[in-house]
Design brief:
This protein is mainly alpha-helical. It folds into two domains: about 100 residues, Recoverin, domain 1 (Orthogonal Bundle); about 55 residues, no CATH class. It is about 50% helix and about 5% strand. It contains nine helices and two strands. The protein has a two-stranded antiparallel ribbon.
């Protein structure tokens, strides 16, 4: 019973890595990039016994000649190839079990993918209170952008010349006479 749940977890990890980064992926096949990511994230690649090159060679060996992906069965054969290499002191079965344990329940990590730069230079450049000239007009006092009004000179159809100080006072002047 325990072995079947372990294989279910292995299948689940295979699916998660198979669809990682590919919107069209179904989870039934895994490409070489995701195979390498699985090996790296699950620490099958240790840098001494198993390297990135070994992982690529095993992928090429187990996949069909014209195919660019591996199925779950080919994935298991690839693990059988890598297990004795990763765990040298163990028997083939023990090594395979150890490799399964490394993979079970894991999913792709996104650590260190994109880091936001937060330096004093970036803060200075994005501080809207220090903007001058025409750029200053694009933001209000709180630093919020004005949208289209801040980028383009919008025409007001009032009949007055732009920036005329006494706009809207004509009616009052004519009543006074």
């Amino acid at each position: 019973m325990a072995a079947s749940t372990d294989l279910e977890q292995l299948m689940s990890s295979f699916k998660k890595f198979a669809i990682h980064g590919d919107t069209k992926a179904t989870g039934k096949e895994m490409n070489g990039k995701n195979w390498a990511k699985l090996c790296k994230d699950c620490k099958i690649i240790d840098g001494k016994n198993v390297t990135g090159t070994d992982v690529d060679i095993v992928f090429t060996k187990v996949k069909a000649k014209t195919s660019r992906v591996i199925t779950y069965e080919e994935f298991q054969r690839a693990l059988e190839e890598l297990a004795p290499k990763r765990f040298k002191g163990q028997s083939k079965e023990e090594a395979l079990t150890s490799v399964y344990k490394l993979i079970e329940g894991k999913e792709p990590t996104n650590v260190g993918v994109t880091k936001m730069a937060k330096t004093a230079a970036v803060d200075r450049l994005t501080d809207t209170t220090k903007y001058t000239g025409s750029h200053k007009e694009r933001f209000d006092e709180s630093g919020k952008g004005r949208g289209k009004g801040g980028r383009e000179e919008l025409v007001e159809k009032t009949g007055y010349v732009g920036s005329y100080k006494n706009a809207g006072t004509y009616e009052e002047k004519t009543k006074a006479k």
